[in-house]
From TrEMBL:
Belongs to the short-chain dehydrogenases/reductases (SDR) family. Keywords: Oxidoreductase. SUPFAM superfamilies: NAD(P)-binding Rossmann-fold domains. Transmembrane segments: none annotated. Pfam families: adh_short. GO terms for molecular function: oxidoreductase activity. This is SDR family NAD(P)-dependent oxidoreductase. It comes from the Bacteria.
Length: 234
């Protein structure tokens, strides 16, 4: 049987990329999902997928099943943070965020479950914006509240079904990744203000926390990690 894989969506950038890199450094077998697979860290096996494409997601997991692969962990890190307000934002932006942040994440959970090792782990990347609504967050925070709710709903479904697969969320504040440019596009000075205030988490620090969730013994199920840089006020 092939070595179980650690599957990472969003492995081509930011949090997912840093986590995939660290997992490889720890000797784990990692498959990374994204469109820009040329940006995958060295040693990560590529899975070029557009997560808006439901059939492509299903076909990908079917191909894993056909190859008798099993999944040790799934990190759902792919996401969009478009600055798009409820009052006047573009509904197309809402739909794009919903497709990736919510629908694709839930579908990846569902498709991965039949392939998960008995004590496997799913980590869904939520956000501080899955815990409190920022004043300028628009439609992004609703997608992240949905991630927290999906994670808790899935945990209860798994326990009710007597399955041992664990599921948890990871909820960072601002992390120094390319997504910030989109999130702060209405307020371009804000990124420099955050840097000056040391309010950005380094992706490598975030990755080490996620990997610590993955490396917990099977008895331990981390529910959520809420983390922010020291300089982030709210
Ligand atoms: N950075 C922060 O401040 C922060 C804070 C809280 C939570 N988060 C959350 O952390 C997660 C990762 O964000 P990040 O900061 O690492 O952002 P990032 O650097 O922009 O990475 C986003 C990832 O999502 C993937 N992605 C986007 N659209 C996709 C699509 N249609 N199909 C497949 N993959 C797609 C991208 O891959 P391709 O472009 O290669 O397809 C990329 O790997 C997100 O869920 C975000 O909401 C971030």
């Amino acid at each position: 049987m092939p070595t179980p894989i650690h599957l990472v969506t969003g492995a081509t950038s930011g949090i997912g990329q840093a986590t995939a890199k660290l997992l490889v450094e720890q000797g784990k077998r990692v498959v990374g999902i994204g469109r820009s697979i040329e940006r995958l860290p060295e040693g990560v096996e590529p899975a070029q997928l557009d997560l808006r494409d439901v059939s492509a997601i299903k076909n990908f997991f079917q191909s894993l099943a056909d190859d008798q692969e099993s999944i040790a962990s799934l990190l759902n890190s792919a996401g969009l943070a478009l600055s798009s307000r409820i009052s006047d934002g573009d509904p197309d932006d809402w739909q794009r965020m919903w497709e990736i942040n919510v629908h694709a994440l839930a579908l990846c959970c569902q498709c991965a479950l039949p392939l998960m090792e008995e004590d496997g782990l799913i980590v869904n990347v939520s956000s501080q914006s899955g815990h409190r609504v920022p004043s300028a967050g628009g439609f992004y925070a609703p997608t992240k509240f949905a991630v927290s709710a999906i994670t808790e709903a899935l945990r209860k479904e798994l326990r009710a079904a007597g399955r041992r697969v664990r599921v948890g969320a990871f909820s960072p504040g601002f992390v120094d990744t390319p997504i910030l440019g989109d999130y702060l596009r209405r307020n371009p000075d804000r990124e420099q203000q955050l840097r000056d205030a040391q309010a950005l988490l380094p992706p490598a620090a975030v990755a080490s926390l996620i990997v610590s969730m993955i490396n917990q013994p099977p008895e331990v199920e981390v529910g959520d990690i809420l983390v922010r840089a020291r300089g982030q006020v709210s």
